[in-house]
Design a protein that fits this description.
The protein is an all-alpha fold. About 55% of the residues lie in helices and about 0% in strands. The chain has 2 helices and no strands. The longest helix has about 55 residues. The mean pLDDT is about 75.
Protein backbone atom coordinates (compact mmCIF):
# COMPACT_ATOMS: atom_id res chain seq x y z
CA UNK A 1 0.00 0.00 0.00
CA UNK A 2 2.85 2.34 0.82
CA UNK A 3 4.45 2.10 -2.71
CA UNK A 4 1.07 2.87 -4.27
CA UNK A 5 0.69 6.06 -2.22
CA UNK A 6 4.26 7.07 -3.06
CA UNK A 7 3.66 6.56 -6.79
CA UNK A 8 0.43 8.58 -6.66
CA UNK A 9 2.14 11.44 -4.81
CA UNK A 10 4.95 11.46 -7.35
CA UNK A 11 2.48 11.53 -10.24
CA UNK A 12 0.60 14.48 -8.78
CA UNK A 13 3.81 16.34 -7.97
CA UNK A 14 5.26 16.16 -11.50
CA UNK A 15 4.42 19.12 -13.71
CA UNK A 16 3.20 18.02 -17.16
CA UNK A 17 5.73 18.82 -19.84
CA UNK A 18 4.87 20.03 -23.29
CA UNK A 19 6.37 18.27 -26.27
CA UNK A 20 7.79 21.44 -27.74
CA UNK A 21 8.86 23.16 -24.55
CA UNK A 22 12.29 23.98 -25.96
CA UNK A 23 10.79 26.08 -28.80
CA UNK A 24 9.60 29.37 -27.35
CA UNK A 25 8.92 30.93 -30.74
CA UNK A 26 7.59 29.30 -33.92
CA UNK A 27 10.19 28.02 -36.38
CA UNK A 28 11.23 30.47 -39.06
CA UNK A 29 9.58 30.13 -42.48
CA UNK A 30 11.61 28.48 -45.21
CA UNK A 31 13.66 30.91 -47.26
CA UNK A 32 12.25 32.02 -50.58
CA UNK A 33 14.83 30.85 -53.11
CA UNK A 34 13.30 32.51 -56.11
CA UNK A 35 10.98 31.76 -58.99
CA UNK A 36 13.36 29.31 -60.69
CA UNK A 37 13.17 26.94 -57.72
CA UNK A 38 9.38 27.23 -57.58
CA UNK A 39 9.21 26.39 -61.30
CA UNK A 40 11.52 23.42 -60.78
CA UNK A 41 9.41 22.18 -57.85
CA UNK A 42 6.24 22.53 -59.92
CA UNK A 43 7.74 20.58 -62.83
CA UNK A 44 8.90 17.82 -60.47
CA UNK A 45 5.42 17.62 -58.92
CA UNK A 46 3.92 17.28 -62.40
CA UNK A 47 6.36 14.49 -63.25
CA UNK A 48 5.47 12.65 -60.05
CA UNK A 49 1.74 12.94 -60.75
CA UNK A 50 2.27 11.61 -64.31
CA UNK A 51 4.31 8.69 -62.98
CA UNK A 52 1.61 7.97 -60.42
CA UNK A 53 -1.06 7.87 -63.14
CA UNK A 54 1.10 5.56 -65.27
CA UNK A 55 1.75 3.28 -62.32
CA UNK A 56 -1.97 3.10 -61.57
CA UNK A 57 -2.71 2.06 -65.16
CA UNK A 58 -0.03 -0.65 -64.99
CA UNK A 59 -1.44 -1.91 -61.69
CA UNK A 60 -4.89 -2.24 -63.25
CA UNK A 61 -3.50 -4.00 -66.32
CA UNK A 62 -1.42 -6.40 -64.23
CA UNK A 63 -4.35 -7.22 -61.94
CA UNK A 64 -6.62 -7.89 -64.92
CA UNK A 65 -4.00 -10.15 -66.48
CA UNK A 66 -3.57 -12.08 -63.22
CA UNK A 67 -7.33 -12.61 -62.87
CA UNK A 68 -7.52 -13.76 -66.49
CA UNK A 69 -4.71 -16.27 -65.91
CA UNK A 70 -6.43 -17.68 -62.83
CA UNK A 71 -9.72 -17.98 -64.73
CA UNK A 72 -8.01 -19.74 -67.65
CA UNK A 73 -6.25 -22.10 -65.24
CA UNK A 74 -9.56 -23.07 -63.62
CA UNK A 75 -11.26 -23.56 -67.00
CA UNK A 76 -8.32 -25.61 -68.30
CA UNK A 77 -8.32 -27.81 -65.23
CA UNK A 78 -12.05 -28.47 -65.56
CA UNK A 79 -11.73 -29.23 -69.26
CA UNK A 80 -8.79 -31.53 -68.61
CA UNK A 81 -10.72 -33.47 -66.00
CA UNK A 82 -13.73 -33.83 -68.32
CA UNK A 83 -11.50 -34.93 -71.19
CA UNK A 84 -9.82 -37.50 -68.95
CA UNK A 85 -13.21 -38.86 -67.84
CA UNK A 86 -14.40 -39.07 -71.44
CA UNK A 87 -11.15 -40.77 -72.50
CA UNK A 88 -11.47 -43.31 -69.69
CA UNK A 89 -15.09 -44.01 -70.56
CA UNK A 90 -14.42 -44.60 -74.27
CA UNK A 91 -11.16 -46.49 -73.95
CA UNK A 92 -11.08 -50.17 -74.96
CA UNK A 93 -9.04 -51.31 -71.97
CA UNK A 94 -11.12 -49.49 -69.35
CA UNK A 95 -10.25 -46.89 -66.74
CA UNK A 96 -6.68 -45.73 -66.22
CA UNK A 97 -7.32 -44.68 -62.63
CA UNK A 98 -8.01 -47.68 -60.37
CA UNK A 99 -11.13 -47.63 -58.27
CA UNK A 100 -10.68 -47.88 -54.52
CA UNK A 101 -13.41 -50.51 -54.13
CA UNK A 102 -11.27 -53.19 -55.83
CA UNK A 103 -9.25 -53.96 -52.70
CA UNK A 104 -9.99 -53.34 -49.05
CA UNK A 105 -7.94 -50.76 -47.25
CA UNK A 106 -5.14 -51.84 -44.99
CA UNK A 107 -4.89 -50.87 -41.33
CA UNK A 108 -3.51 -47.43 -42.16
CA UNK A 109 -6.13 -46.77 -44.85
CA UNK A 110 -3.79 -47.23 -47.84
CA UNK A 111 -4.92 -49.07 -50.98
CA UNK A 112 -2.32 -51.22 -52.71
CA UNK A 113 -2.76 -51.80 -56.43
CA UNK A 114 0.55 -53.39 -57.37
CA UNK A 115 0.23 -56.98 -58.40
CA UNK A 116 -3.56 -57.06 -58.51
CA UNK A 117 -4.86 -59.47 -61.14
CA UNK A 118 -8.53 -59.62 -60.26
CA UNK A 119 -9.49 -55.95 -60.57
CA UNK A 120 -12.49 -55.42 -62.84
CA UNK A 121 -11.17 -52.23 -64.39
CA UNK A 122 -8.02 -53.78 -65.90
CA UNK A 123 -7.47 -55.81 -68.99
CA UNK A 124 -6.16 -59.31 -68.20
CA UNK A 125 -3.16 -58.91 -70.50
CA UNK A 126 -1.90 -55.96 -68.41
CA UNK A 127 -1.85 -57.88 -65.13
CA UNK A 128 1.65 -58.87 -64.17
Amino acid sequence: MKPLITILLLLFAVVPLHAGWFFDDPPPPPPDLGPEYRAKINSLEEQISEQHATTTRWEVATGTLALGCVLLFVIGTALGAKTRQHYDATRRLGRTIPTTTASPATANGAHHHLGETDATDRHPSLAA
